[in-house]
Design brief:
By secondary structure, this protein is α/β, with parallel strands linked by helices. It has ten helices and six strands; from the N terminus they run βαβαβαβαβαβααααα. Strands 2-1-3-4-5-6 form a six-stranded parallel beta sheet, sandwiched between helices. InterPro entries: CheY-like_superfamily, NreC/VraR/RcsB-like_REC, Sig_transdc_resp-reg_C-effctor, Sig_transdc_resp-reg_receiver, Tscrpt_reg_LuxR_C, WalR-like.
Length: about 210
């Protein structure tokens, strides 16, 4: 796997590079400004871009704006945002602007290296990895919920899917059987009108619907 990192904190950038290198993941470019990200992904065509939100020169939302521009320049580019903040407007646009390959993790809540590396691989494959706090803030925007047909348990299962949990992890979290989780997910697909296709693709589409994609 080949990645581009956009992060202005030198120690954090170096730490992420080292973690990835230990797993055989190559960092083909590491930049410290959002406006350098587009050029880096256009040149290297990586499997994933890992992007901070607040970067020079204004330290507001340069990273997210750059991530959106990078996805326009390289359609389908998987992007994992790793930030201290939830910038709602741009987060919604990023999370709802494609068919998957998106993640948004809060730095202070990434406490487990294995979980972080799992998120890196999942997003690079076209899946999702969304921090529960990001989901909460996005859903609090008050947009019309297209998921009223789901039961409370189905909504709970879909919320855990949005966090990137596997069926087995969802079963363990809810203390139910693997078969029960599969049944709930089947009901979710049916109620959202997601016809049979690749399982991963339907999961991504369901998660994007949960996050408010039109």
């Amino acid at each position: 796997m080949r990645v581009v990192i956009a992060e202005d904190a030198v120690l954090l950038r170096a730490g992420v590079e080292r973690l990835l290198a230990d797993e055989g993941i190559e960092t083909v470019a590491a930049v410290d400004r959002g406006d350098e990200l587009v050029g880096a992904v256009t040149e290297h065509r990586p499997d994933l871009a890992i992007v901070d939100v607040r970067m020079p020169p204004t330290f507001t939302d340069e990273g997210l704006r750059a991530a959106l521009a990078a996805r326009e320049a390289v359609p389908g580019l998987p992007v994992l945002v790793l930030s201290q903040y939830v910038e709602e407007s741009y987060a919604v646009e990023l999370l709802s602007g494609g068919a998957g390959g998106v993640g948004y993790l809060l730095k202070e809540r990434v406490a487990d290296v294995a979980d972080f590396l799992d998120a890196v691989r999942r997003v690079a494959r076209g899946g999702t990895a969304i921090d529960p706090e990001v989901i909460a803030q996005v859903m609090a925007r008050g947009r019309k919920n297209p998921l009223d047909a789901l039961t409370a348990r189905e909504s709970e299962v879909l919320g855990l899917m949005a966090q990137g949990l596997s069926n087995s992890a969802i079963a363990a979290s809810l203390v139910v059987s693997h078969g029960a989780v599969e049944k709930h997910i089947g009901n979710i697909f049916a109620k959202l009108g997601l016809e049979a296709s690749a399982e991963e693709h339907r999961r991504v589409r369901a998660v994007l619907t949960y996050l408010g994609r039109p």
